[in-house]
Amino acid sequence: MSKVNQHPLASHPAIQNFRKYLQIKSVQPNPDYGACVDFITGQAKELGLPIKVHEFVKGKPIVVISWEGTNPNLPSILLNGHMDVVPVVESKWKYDPFAAEIDEKGNIYARGAQDMKSVSIQYLEAIRYLKQNGVKLRRTIHISFVPDEEIFSADGMALFVKTKEFKELNIGFGLDECGPSSNKDYVAINSERLTWTLEIVCTGNAGHGLMLIPNTAAEKVQYLLNKFLKYREEQSKKMKHPLYDLGNVTTVNLTKIQGGIQSNVIPSKITMIFDCRVTPSDAPTFDSQVKQWCEEAGGDSVTYKYLCRKDPIVPTTKTDDSNPFWKAFESVFKKRNDNLVVITCPGATDARFLREVGIPALGISPMPETPFLLHDHNEFVNAKTFLDGIELYKEIISAIANVE
Ligand code: ZN
Prior knowledge:
Elements lengths: L12 H10 L10 H15 L3 E4 L7 E6 L8 E7 L18 E2 L4 E3 L7 H16 L8 E6 L10 H4 L3 H5 L2 E6 L9 E7 L1 E10 L3 E2 L8 H22 L12 E9 L5 E2 L2 E10 L4 H16 L3 E6 L16 H13 L3 E6 L5 H6 L4 E4 L15 E3 H19 L3
Parallel strand pairs: 3-6, 3-7, 7-16, 8-15
Antiparallel strand pairs: 1-2, 2-6, 4-5, 5-17, 8-16, 9-13, 9-14, 10-12, 11-13
């Protein structure tokens, strides 16, 4: 522990800034958003840029720093990041998860080091550099800091995109988060799987547990489980790369099963919950498949519904010549000779709410050769990887904000 914070990069101003943001306990379920707003306000002051703090829901601030372009009438660029982080199991961490210690290898350990305080600071540091060097970009850039992404964004991005304050920003293209890659590739997201939480209720004849009663709930459960597990098996056969392909298959997992009142009574009702993550290409037919299986299993005695929010089917952000922002984004990686892999996100990010209101958006968190530790113990990013990411954002931001 004696070598902590002795690494040469520990004194780098961008690293110091990053560590300060990591040290704010914006951890669910009681994130300190007040401290985040104070920190971001300080950043805006240093950058000499205007800042707006919206509070559509009390205690859930949405913060936007803006850098006006030379042609502010053009649709603007949104650089989005969520302020909150997921909880920690402190005993499993090598270092205090909110101290942001740097070890002798230059690894910065903190909750949010990957997801996604790194990205928000990289946006700010890239803009600091561009602005200090007299660079002028064509389109206005808005850097947003939103709450509650880790608890499904209801008071965060999901709400923000519906406000007049958001519409006034006139966003034409957005960037948000992704995750690291184990090799030298950069991974970007242009679409996401849809979260559909399915509840199926099977009903049937009840009675004494010693009988052979026909038409029981359990037989319907058996029929459906066979269908869902067969489907699951077929999907897993399509997987070639454990991370890149997960977004290209639909996963169905039985996560809850409930029923029965006593061990010698045949239950009249059994409820199953499936966590379904549906690919954009499977989404149009998935529901009719479920409907058919339920009908086959037991007609009117089997019903189903979706719990929570059933993600709507949203347009995939185009990665072809029809999207000038994609062309600008891709050109940066080509110029640097970096390999860019575009995937469908297996999970969900706030970018889906932008796509939902018709704004093309890509997700990227530039962390090559980094283990995937989002939501895991001992989350870290290497200081050099973090600084390289700032270099990348200087180029990406310049390219996308200069699209004609
Ligand atoms: Zn995140």
